[in-house]
Amino acid sequence: MSLLTVKEVTKSYKSGKIAVNNVSFHLDKGECFGLVGESGCGKSTLARCLLRVENIDSGSICINGEAIEKLSERRLYPYRNKIQIVFQNPSAALNPRLKIKESLLDPYEQFCSSLKLSYFSYSSKEQFVRQLLDAVELPSELANRYPHELSGGQRQRVTIARAISIEPELIVLDEPTASLDVLSQKAVLILLTELRKTLNLSYLFISHDLAAVSQMSQRIMVMKSGELVDQFDGEHLSSQDRHPYTKDLVSIF
Ligand code: ADP
Ligand code: MG
What we know:
The chain is of the alpha/beta class and 253 residues long. The chain is 35% helix and 24% strand. It has nine helices and ten strands. The strands form two sheets. It has a six-stranded mixed beta sheet with strand order 6-7-8-3-9-10, sandwiched between helices. A four-stranded antiparallel beta sheet has the order 2-1-4-5, covered by helices on one side. Helix 4 runs parallel beside helix 6 (152-164) and helix 6 (152-164) runs parallel beside helix 7. The radius of gyration is 18 Å and the shape is globular. Adenosine-5'-diphosphate binds next to helix 1.
């Protein structure tokens, strides 16, 4: 069974803009599925729909076979800890008034009643925070700092540590390296690949950057103006069977 099954999902905004138009795909446990497309094609809207931050107009979203698009907030709760998201801009994702350790503890404290951790262990707050920082290769002394006292790359590692802290099944990575310099981008992509294997995570890796998507993903899908125009195994990226729009993306990469 797929971890995530998206069927004919459409999402429009009040302005009338159809941001996601009849999109269907499935994501298997343990895989990294890449989503590529130019700015404004609807990638982040789709991501927000998967997390039920936005409600969809029509279609269905199933996690482990259960349709979540209509669940009440109370019935949605057991699914909330199965998916986490990492955004493009870590500065906006971290509360500037909280120390790093406080931000790191936040998801665990929210979900602890329904969590069974298998990789991390929670015997004390300090030890838990140390494990999380260690997992993303940050020194433990950062725990007592505030976000503005970290580099952009370090801040993004903190948001990744926070996302993995509750051992979700799926992490939606929405342009996770777009705000970083080239060296930090490379290092964060390597870290994400290692974490996926170590923690048996699945990723939906979203980027406008085909090079990053093809480096990370076993399968790739391509969005254009709200529609999914192509889906294929990563090794078939340059095949003649690709959609003309995918060929355009390949030709400039
Ligand atoms: P991407 O992440 O691929 O850059 P988005 O999902 O952010 O694309 O945006 C898709 C389209 O929906 C764009 O035309 C954008 O202007 C529009 N859009 C995004 N968010 C909103 C919103 N909250 N209200 C109205 N339109 C929006
Ligand atoms: Mg976006």
